[in-house]
Specification:
heterodimer, A: about 425 residues, alpha/beta, 6-stranded mixed beta sheet, 4-stranded mixed beta sheet, 12 strands, globular, B: about 300 residues, mainly alpha, two-stranded antiparallel ribbon, 14 helices, flat
Chain lengths: ~425, ~300
């Protein structure tokens, strides 16, 4: 009889141990950043309160678009994760999917977090119809990296703030014989979007698709035309290194010392400084007219909590997301990757500790973020067809830079293509899973 | 000394304007030499990425970006290999890929042999339609089948298993077509003789037909193995843990899309991850080439 009692006791204890809620977290951070994320997840699992309660399994799911496709497929088979990391331009699609629980819904039961915890310029991007849907996790904006040695040699004090001045300086830093150019940035739609926002112009109607769904895009607005013309003028003058599509060629060009300036994401700030065999400094991106209010749009990714039949999984997902938003994690993520922190208190703490005095390059993006006017232009456009729209812009820019089309002609064509895609999407309102 | 070199029917010495000694003009008129030189150009172009990959895997930091690019690394350091091995369970990825690719290859060979034999040698109703349908599967892009296959496997509870990586690829339309072509070249008399001697169809197939078709089977096997090894989208969608992920996904883990990457480490990882399929091809190369030419599928 006593043996039987013992067995019951042991079985009871075992079932207690089995009550641990295990969830999946799907992410797209390859390379060293994936390793850092891995460390953070391990720390979450090692927190004493989480022992035997929550356990997060980290799963790499390919690039952002690949991860999105995997998620769609998995949701159809009801095999989705509890938390997914989705890129900025996937926001509209995720909201439309009906498969997510808005982050804000969890705040009611948790006094430790509220919308106000996050910097308004960052929060704004992931607020749809007034509701914060996801946790902005890795956020960035584009900044100018420059080769301080080239600048010193040419006797240039720093990076100027307007398009016209940048053109002048870039030409000054170029040398056709030595195959040196003044500036470069990746041929990626993101940069077009940023230059448009910097000039205070919405990319999409209905206030960037934030008050109703967007129907028309503003590619051919004066700001859009100017953004591509600025690009094109420098290519024609030989002061811009046009090295093709994708993110990497431009960065390689800069790191090899062949372009004096590079515009790319701040998420590269520590990596570039480490890899460059010369001194690198940073500056905010230029605009046409400094008097016009505008700014940059944040890029990066956010953490989304997915609906689950087992509410314990949703609870575990929120516990994890809350951990990712914590001061300690945000500080670690920011100082080790270059993505900027999403919380005001992290910036203040690091400022007090003198982190930015030691790493002035990392300050540029934060300063630029804070200087961004709180308007819909800098909140960023919301459209489910964003990945396609980027392709339309990229091929338009490519045609212009190759001299095959005029700026107006190429952008008009891109506009028509994107609007066709928008009309199609608005008609079906893409849903990953039916209600 | 010219006695040993002779052309059909004539001694070289008897030819009008014969070449007296070893001379440039004789070397230059050697057709083989020109063919070799000509083939060397595409061969070098083919092999260059491989050489460059290996060279980069030994380079340190910014040496990767140096302009103009260099083929010989400044120093032979193994740091990149060590970093790659530390960054991801490469051994596990290789093991998974090996299990999946080998199983797919063996299954495809097995199913292709049976189907090709039936189509080539047995008369039955609807054969032509069946054959066209099988050929038709070669024209369906693999991506289209992902969602239905996923849903089926999810219902069976097979997500994140080896079966999921293997079973959807158990048969190959191309394999059936290739072996069908080959089996048809084997004389019917051979089979009739075997049957007269009391062999069953299966016995004839596996004891006579298969050994005869070995070059074609090996050629198809190498092709099947390499395609299975290179799969990316399906393994990505159907795996849900690092323990089940394959080499190709592992490789993706090294390369971030919108950032500057450590190419030295990526190339070290790539070198390790492509080694098995490269080795397989080296070992079976001769049969591979023979198989392709014998089945009349040149190029």
């Amino acid at each position: 009889m006593r043996e039987l009692f013992l067995i019951v006791l042991v079985l009871g204890a075992a079932s207690q141990a089995l009550a641990i809620t295990e969830i999946q977290f799907w992410h797209s951070m390859a390379g060293p950043k994936g390793k850092i994320l891995d460390g953070i997840v391990n720390e979450f699992n090692a927190v004493p309160e989480n022992q035997g309660v929550f356990h997060v399994h980290l799963q790499y799911v390919g690039s952002y678009p690949e991860g999105m496709n995997k998620l769609r497929t998995a949701l159809l088979g009801k095999k989705g994760p509890a938390v997914a990391q989705i890129y900025d331009i996937g926001t509209r699609t995720m909201v439309d999917s009906g498969a997510v629980v808005p982050l804000e819904d969890f705040f009611a039961d948790d006094p430790s977090l509220s919308k106000e915890t996050f910097l308004p310029q960052i929060r704004g991007y992931y607020e749809v119809d007034g509701k914060l849907y996801s946790l902005p996790f890795a956020t960035s904006n584009p900044i100018v990296y420059y080769n301080a040695e080239s600048f010193r040699k040419a006797g240039i004090a720093g990076v100027p703030k307007t398009f016209a001045e940048i053109e002048k300086v870039a030409l000054q830093l170029s040398d056709k014989k030595k195959q040196l150019t003044g500036i470069t940035w990746p041929l990626v739609g993101w940069f077009f979007e940023q230059f448009v926002a910097r000039q205070g112009q919405d990319l999409l109607d209905h206030h960037n698709g934030r008050q109703g769904r967007g129907v028309r895009v503003n590619y051919t607005s004066p700001a859009g035309i100017e953004a591509v013309s600025f690009w094109n003028r420098m290519v024609k003058a030989g002061s811009f290194a046009h090295v093709g599509r994708g993110w990497e060629p431009a960065a390689h060009n800069f790191l090899a010392g062949r372009s004096a300036m590079l515009i790319t994401s701040t998420s590269e700030v520590f990596d570039i400084a480490k890899q460059a065999p010369f001194e690198v400094k940073t500056a905010p991106i230029p605009t046409k007219d400094l008097a016009v209010a505008g700014g940059t749009v944040i890029g990066g990714n956010a953490l989304w909590i997915l609906k689950k039949e087992d509410k314990n999984e949703e609870k575990a997902a929120y516990a994890f997301v809350r951990y990712m938003a914590s001061l300690a994690v945000q500080e670690k993520w920011h100082t080790s990757t270059g993505y900027f922190p999403i919380r005001q208190d992290v910036v203040e703490k690091l400022e007090k500790e003198g982190f930015y005095a030691k790493n002035p390059s990392a300050w540029t993006a934060i300063e630029q973020l804070r200087a961004s006017a709180p308007i819909s232009a800098t909140q960023g456009a919301l459209m489910a067809v964003f990945p396609e729209a980027r392709e339309h812009i990229e091929s338009a820019v490519e045609k212009v830079l190759a001299g095959a089309m005029s700026v107006e002609g190429a952008l008009t064509e891109a506009k028509a293509r994107t609007e066709k895609a928008l009309a199609r999407d608005n008609a079906i309102k893409t849903r990953i899973v039916g209600e | 000394m010219d006695d040993t070199v002779s052309l059909p029917g004539k001694r070289v010495g008897e030819m009008v304007g014969a070449i007296p000694t070893v001379s440039w003009s004789r070397i230059l008129s050697n057709k083989r030499l020109w063919v070799t030189l000509f083939l060397l150009i595409p061969a070098l172009a083919q092999i260059f990425p491989m050489v460059y990959m290996i060279s980069m895997s030994f380079k340190e930091g910014v040496e990767v970006f140096s302009y103009p690019p260099t083929v010989m690394p400044k120093s032979l350091q193994l740091g990149n290999y060590q970093a790659a091995l530390e960054a991801a369970p490469i051994g596990r990825f290789l093991f998974n890929s090996m299990v999946a690719a080998l199983s797919i290859t063996l299954l495809q060979i097995f199913t292709a042999i049976l189907a090709a034999y039936a189509l080539a040698r047995i008369e039955f109703r609807g054969k032509r339609i069946l054959f066209v349908l099988i050929l038709g599967t070669m024209m369906v892009p693999g991506e289209i089948t992902i969602i239905p296959n996923y849903l089926t496997l999810a219902r069976w509870g097979w997500i994140d298993t080896y079966q999921a990586l293997v079973v959807p690829f158990a048969a190959s339309g191309f394999g059936v077509f290739l072996l069908y072509q080959f089996f048809r070249t084997v004389p019917k008399e051979l089979e009739e003789a075997a049957i007269v001697d009391g062999a069953s169809r299966l016995r004839f197939l596996f004891q006579i037909m298969v050994p005869l078709a070995l070059p074609a089977i090996i050629a198809f096997g190498v092709y099947a193995f390499v395609s299975a090894w290179n799969q990316y989208l399906w393994p990505l969608v159907v795996t849900q843990s690092t323990d089940m992920q394959t080499a190709q996904i592992g490789l993706g883990m090294f390369r971030a899309e919108n950032e500057s990457n450590s190419w030295g480490v990526i190339m070290a990882a790539t070198s390790m991850l492509i080694a098995p399929s490269l080795l397989l091809f080296l070992v079976t190369q001769r049969q591979f080439v023979r198989g392709i030419t014998m089945s009349g599928l040149k190029g």
